[in-house]
Amino acid sequence: MLPEILGDIIQRVELTEDRWPIRKNVVSCACVCKRWRDVTQGIVKSPLQSGKITFPSSLKQPGPRDSPLQCFIKRNKKNSTFYLYLGFTPTVMDRGKFLLAARRYRRGAHTEYIISLDADDLSQGSNAYVGKLSSDFLGTKFTIYDSQPPYIGAKPSSSRSSRRFASKQISPQVPAGNFEIGQVSYKFNLLKSRGPRRMLCNLRCPGTKQTSDEEPQKDDSEMQAPTATSESMVLRNKAPRWHEPLQCWCLNFHGRVTVASVKNFQLVAAVDPSQPGGKGDEEIVLLQFGKVGDDMFTMDYRQPLSAFQAFAICLTSFGTKLACE
């Protein structure tokens, strides 16, 4: 088979939007010979390089650098379930590629969100379980847990996680567990002043080292393996400005948010006072989330965040937090 024909086949598989492509088809093409492998690697890339989400492993890889991936979240209030989709266009959100689902559970005074690859199987014992989000009893602090170790040697936060990944999961060869990868906290507002929310995120982000044109590209199996170290990053919500004529707090979502809500937010990198000149950029929005309908919300994210991390952060905004409204 000519490499041009193989390239067209792989391109069609990679562009599949309505479902996850069958991984074995791509792997089979890449295993035939070195020439076919080079063609496959040149097309199937990580979201950081291609700006696309092709395989489940892409959900835990950093998003693109130059422009955000535009997603949306559908909420089902009846069963406290949330569905993340990759949008096809910036304006039409009635259909998209399903990415992740989450369901809210009450654990006494605490709240948990179980995140899964399967929209119909949302439990921590599921083969599609990818992580969870857990709140404190006030609902002002959330901890994000990954089912995979974020780096080599990471210890699980719970001893109840000795299961193995099944074939549906992101990395079948890595033992399952609950590994803490970040925290999201909201400023406690006991007096309930009518100012905007204030939130702070401490995250362990996936590696974002770039591959130059001269360096050999890693295949997808290498991309999904946990790195020896991962970067820690602090994000905070971008402060809105008071709009005097409208008598409200405003943020510029560039048309992606159409309904005013206390849940709407934009996250930017916080300035690090320990670094010379600080480290952060208030102009680059790394994650924005906002309401566009009764049960429809947009979610746009970029490097260094992954789709899984961005979804978990957005889920914190759905909790009933009387102390931080």
Describe this protein's structure.
- InterPro entries: Tubby-like_C, Tubby_C, Tubby_C_CS.
- It holds the Pfam family Tub.
- Belongs to the TUB family.
- By secondary structure, this protein is of the alpha+beta class.
- It has 2 domains: 44 residues; 223 residues, Tubby Protein, Chain A.
- It contains 6 helices and 14 strands.
- Strands 1-2-3-4-5-6-7-8-9-12-13-14 form a 12-stranded antiparallel beta barrel. Strands 10-11 form a two-stranded antiparallel sheet.
- Helix 1 packs parallel to helix 3.
- 36% of the residues are buried.
- About 10% of the residues have low confidence.
Total domain count: 2
Radius of gyration: 20 Å
* Separate helix tally: 6
Percent helix, as a range, is 10-25%
CATH homologous group name of the largest domain: Tubby Protein, Chain A
CATH class of the largest domain: Alpha Beta
CATH fold assignment of the largest domain: Tubby Protein, Chain A
The helix-and-strand class reads: alpha+beta
Low-confidence parts, pLDDT < 50 over ≥5 residues? 159-168, 209-229
Mean pLDDT across residues: 75
Summarize the structure.
This protein has 6 helices and 14 strands. It is of the alpha+beta class and 325 residues long.
Keywords:
single chain, alpha+beta, Tubby Protein, Chain A, twelve-stranded antiparallel beta barrel, two-stranded antiparallel sheet, 29% strand
List the helices and strands and how they pair.
Elements: H1 3-14, H2 23-31, H3 34-43, H4 47-50, E1 69-76, E2 81-87, E3 96-107, E4 110-116, E5 129-135, E6 141-146, E7 179-186, E8 199-205, H5 220-223, E9 231-237, E10 241-243, E11 248-250, E12 265-269, E13 287-293, E14 296-301, H6 307-315
Antiparallel strand pairs: 1-2, 1-14, 2-3, 3-4, 4-5, 5-6, 6-7, 7-8, 8-9, 9-12, 10-11, 12-13, 13-14
Helix pairs in contact: 1-3, 2-3
Organism: Macleaya cordata
Family: Belongs to the TUB family.
Protein name: Tubby-like F-box protein
